[in-house]
Specification:
This protein is α+β, with helices and mostly antiparallel strands. The chain has eight helices and twelve strands. The strands form two sheets. Strands 1-8-11-10-9-12 form a six-stranded antiparallel barrel. A four-stranded antiparallel sheet has the order 5-4-2-7. The longest helix has 33 residues. The relative contact order is 0.18. About 4% of the residues have low confidence.
Amino acid sequence: MKRRALVIGVVVLVVAGIAYWVYEAHESSRARYEYSGTVETREIQAGSKVGGRVTEVPVEEGQFVHAGATLVRFEVDDLIARRKEALAQMGEAQASLDKMLRGNRPEEITEANEAAQAQKAAYEAARNGPRQQDIEQARAEFAAAQADAANGERFFERMQQLIAHDTISRQQFDDARNRRDSAAAQAKASQERLALLEAGTRPEDIASAQARYQQAEAAAVLARRGYRKEDIQAARAQVAAAQAAVASLDVSLREAQIPAPADGLIETVSVRPGDLVPAGRVVVTMLEASQLWVRIYVPETDLARVHIGQSATVHVDGLSREFHGHVGMVSAEAEFLPRNVQTPDDREHQVFGVKVYVDDAGNVLKSGMSATVRLE
């Protein structure tokens, strides 16, 4: 019995020793894969590409905002006026393009054709010269004018004799002289007109008439054919340029109001209403709340057991609950590297930065909190 009891005691001691060794190993393993770190978040620096005079700042430092909330508004009166002008230019360019695509109206084509026909008739008349009937009429008119001039001259001579004997008044004599001069001038004009008709149309007049006809005919052809492809392409380019100008102003109008790109906490606000802000300046800094992580440092001796996507548990001081997370980044270079690494103990001081993203942080965790991360 004593021997049996001794054996049983030895077995119990061995089992207890093994259990204690396993427990210590487990606790050592748990302690080995727990790391201290700090909660961090992405800092967002909000600004405008156009800038301008600030009209409204509806947020304050320390305020939590949701994505899309307005952070800063700028004055937009000048942009609105320029956009109206650009819209008017776009409408004008579009109307010009539509006109080219539709072509000329039927009445415009008819008018151009009639103008061309009129110029053609004038050119042919100039090329053919005066008609024989016109020449004969001019000769008759010249003969009649010569007769009137001869009668006027004879009448004036009689009046000269009468005025010498004071038989007529001075007024009657002046009337006779005026009648003579007028008849002579009329005969001279009829003679010159007859000479022009007999000489025919001058070459330069024919050339001028031909040029006018060709110009009118070309205009009629263009009216019938419509606009050239090159002109239509140029009109399309003008429409595209006008549309681009409107789109550019729309972008500027959107930039005149800075929205929050994500849920987060306002950290700093550097402008107030009335400030004149240049383009590209950061006016609001905020901490993003939708993505938090804990930065820890893993020794080189543990690095082989750490991998992207690895599950983790995060505990934060002052909070009773634990948070779930995963390894999202492992640094490619060591940090805090001693001057000489020779022993295993020295290698423990060579660490690598690791980001552990918190999956269910909500609005509980804040940037800067101390945290303990346990890698599964």
